[in-house]
Specification:
Chain lengths: ~375, ~375
């Protein structure tokens, strides 16, 4: 039923610093069971495999997490783990997957998405990918546009233009422009028009199309990718990749390609998407108990006069609180975080301070 | 210089439940280094030994903490540890010490005080004990009256009556009455008059006087104490004590004796006394850093936008907070407490809930 040339490329290189102290260097966000019994990576794989079989799923990951991917996705063919020598942003990551796929299947189309997002409506997601695949066959770089739930100022927006053909149920539009993170007033205006979508970082394109776009807009990356491609099926693969990655400029798909390219389409979706950005947004996605608190982890808790809070504790640790409202408490064996939910974004500042002060053991 | 018949009796049987989760069954408050490098028991012993040598210091403690007392006060003669079979309140505790001392020294006078109070002015304390000793020789039951720092509603008060002789520098008064914990308005009136003192639970009396008072006001306790005294220097000591303690009614020095007895005196003191009742009062006694926070324990902390808070962490645990003001955070290896300081008294409710729910391992 699905296009047999359609591949999934899961980018599993994120850090998730706002979900510290659970998200750590050794086990970043995408490898954690933040939302349920499975990890976010496992959820991401299981969401797509009804449409795209495991043999056509690729995961791009850093060297230090290769074993984690193998153990979390044991059915994935080993050759489908692409190991990045270091993080260079999403453009080199997607470019690497593109040249590898080009070597396997000249007709390949790839759907690219992060390993650390939540999508409640998995069937809707797959339907949108199928629709985007169809548009991509006409040489479009296609992005999914997330129907904005509210005027979020922390996301980039995509403004749609003219209607393109889509599947019966799923329309598609040309993209008029990408807008960077707006101020509150602008965000409200965006949402009011009904013509703007959140940029969720989910893309579908033919490998030939994206490689051509990289050649045009990121020629330095294109050159390095050619060197990698030439060495891929030789013993020099690792060496070539390391050399290329020491030269490729750090850039993202959005800034490096989508904002510059001409033939861009958007497939609007309303699929319960969330980037699970911080502890406050995570807690909104989870079921609260009668006292409006969300309790997670293997530990115990005893909460007096406490409301609207998210409590995580591990092992047999007992967390007790009195008189808290709207708090986040994350207790791991070696690090504890306490903050009101409205400060959840500033967890990134904690992580930066730890780096500055050389407290590596807590990162 | 000091009366060679004067003994110190330190009551080390408290629980300190409002200082949970550091104060636990195995190591209650008095055995913790809450205020400095030494434990509260060690501070209490060192405060009195310049006046009363170690041979005349007795510590009354429960069976389960005998070894803790030995290790924390290694210079204490073993015979000076009196082991209570179980907690029965302060009256049986003091009564036990009285009959033991009566067997050692017919002229004995005893100064009785808890092991878990802070007294900043140790010299002033010793001077007051010396003055109280002098009054006690005239057959008074003497209590120290703490000059109230503010209209506290959590303490009992002592109203003074006529002036008695004291030492030159330290006056003494007859006690007019003991007042139970007052409401806020009454407490303010008490403090305004200048004739009321906090009841700090520090007493001085001749052994003969207190035993007579017990005989009059707590005849059942007196009978049991006589049986203990008769068996004390025999192999039946433990058995007799256990039997007596299974019968003695639970009561305190204040309710059982002082509020009923006739010849009661008070020696007013202003010695930086504090009962270190809960985490909020404890934190007021400690030096804050430039950010107005008090940091304790061997762990680390990283506090962003956090003020007026008390943070304890053990081991190498890192505690991080964002946007807290006036909080208590106590992180021990198996239990964590978080509350605003104004809820610090309710820590007792946590401990009660743990008991109710049978979570013994955290008590």
């Amino acid at each position: 039923m699905t296009d047999r040339h359609l591949y999934a490329v899961i980018m599993a290189g994120g850090i998730g610093s706002r979900l510290w102290p659970r998200s750590r260097k050794a086990t970043p966000k995408q490898f954690l069971d933040l939302l349920g019994p499975r990890t976010m990576l496992q959820d991401t794989v299981e969401r797509i495999t009804p449409s795209i079989p495991m043999e056509r799923v690729l995961i791009v990951v850093g060297q230090e997490h290769t074993e984690t991917v193998r153990s979390q996705v044991p059915d994935l063919p080993v050759d489908n783990i692409l190991v990045e020598p270091g993080p260079r942003g999403t453009a080199p990551c997607a470019g690497l997957a593109a040249v590898v796929l080009a070597g396997r299947d000249a007709e390949a189309t790839m759907a690219v998405f992060p390993a650390d997002h939540r999508i409640a409506d998995a069937a809707g997601f797959r339907k949108a990918i199928t629709a985007a695949d169809r548009i991509a066959q006409d040489g479009y770089l296609v992005t999914l546009g997330i129907a904005p739930a509210y005027p979020h100022t922390g996301y980039g927006y995509i403004q749609r233009g003219d209607l393109l053909q889509g599947t019966d149920a799923v329309p598609a539009y040309r993209v008029r422009r990408f807008a960077e993170k707006p101020d509150a007033e602008t965000a409200q205006e965006f949402v009011r028009t009904g013509k703007y979508y959140w940029n969720g970082g989910i893309f579908v394109w033919k490998v030939a199309t994206i490689l051509a776009a990289i050649g045009t807009h990121l020629p330095k990356l294109a050159t390095e990718l050619q060197a990698v491609a030439a060495a891929w099926e030789t013993p020099r693969r690792g060496e070539a990749l390391a050399s290329a990655w020491s030269h490729v400029p750090r850039t993202t798909i959005d800034y490096g390609i989508m904002e510059k390219a001409a033939r861009i389409a958007v497939v609007p979706v309303d699929i319960g998407w969330d980037d699970v950005g911080n502890w406050a947004t995570l807690s909104r996605l989870l079921e609260a108990n009668e006292q409006t608190n969300v309790l997670h982890g293997s530990g115990r808790s005893l909460l007096l006069d406490t409301k609207g809070s998210y409590i995580y504790s591990s092992g047999r640790k007992l967390v007790t609180t009195i008189g808290l409202e709207g708090f986040v408490v994350i207790d791991t064996p070696d690090a504890l975080l306490i903050c009101p939910k409205e400060h959840a974004e500033e967890v990134r500042d904690i992580v930066n301070r730890l780096k500055e002060e050389g407290l590596e053991e807590y990162l």
